[in-house]
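Hey forum,

I'm writing up a methods section and want to include a predicted complex as supplementary material. The small molecule is flavin mononucleotide. I've pasted the protein sequence and the SMILES. Can someone with a working setup run it? I'll credit the forum in the acknowledgements.
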Amino acid sequence: MEFYDLIKSRESVRDYNPDKKIPKEVMDRILNAGRLAPSASNRQPWRFVLVSSPEKLAQVHDSYRRDWFKQSPHVLVIVGDKSQSWKRSYDGFDSVQIDLTIAMDYMILAAENEGIGTCWIIAYDYELLADAIGLKKDEVIYCITPLGYQHPHYKKRDNKIRKDLSEVVEII
Ligand SMILES: Cc1cc2nc3c(=O)[nH]c(=O)nc-3n(C[C@H](O)[C@H](O)[C@H](O)COP(=O)(O)O)c2cc1C
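Reply by user p_vandermeer:
Happy to help. Structure tokens for the complex are below, copy them as they are.
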């Protein structure tokens, strides 16, 4: 898809077909987009946990109780490792959250390019999710997304509600 069309067409999908898994080659392309994302000092302080097995999916779905989320056939959890991320020398600022957000956005846009729905989610129960994926010492989770095809009846809302460019841009 043309890049600006891709940006316009991505929207939060809250409708998933639980029976249609994503083929491995398609999933690999999406995950590879995350692998290619930039990170501070190229530390790549992440692991991408793809939750696809019925047992693990049930546990992860439990961490965010919404009927539509329960339908997603895959959930992607981006895990950051604070022992690997870059810290700014003079104040200790940690780049991990920025690094993870970029990687997630690359994968979300790659999914859109593959015709696969996503939705940024952060309002999950952190402890339940951490437990489900076996989060280790120094690891953090900042966001997850379902990955899946929509039902055939799904219609894109196609109505971006956003502030006007003049409200958000300041040229100085
Ligand atoms: C950082 C972040 C966290 C979000 N968390 C949630 C969430 O927990 N649950 C949810 O349903 N949507 C969540 N969203 C989706 C936003 O509500 C959505 O992106 C926004 O309303 C714009 O709509 P659009 O994605 O369809 O363009 C989140 C989005 C972002 C960027």
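Some notes you might quote in the supplement: The chain has a mean pLDDT of 97. The two ends are 34 Å apart (CA to CA).
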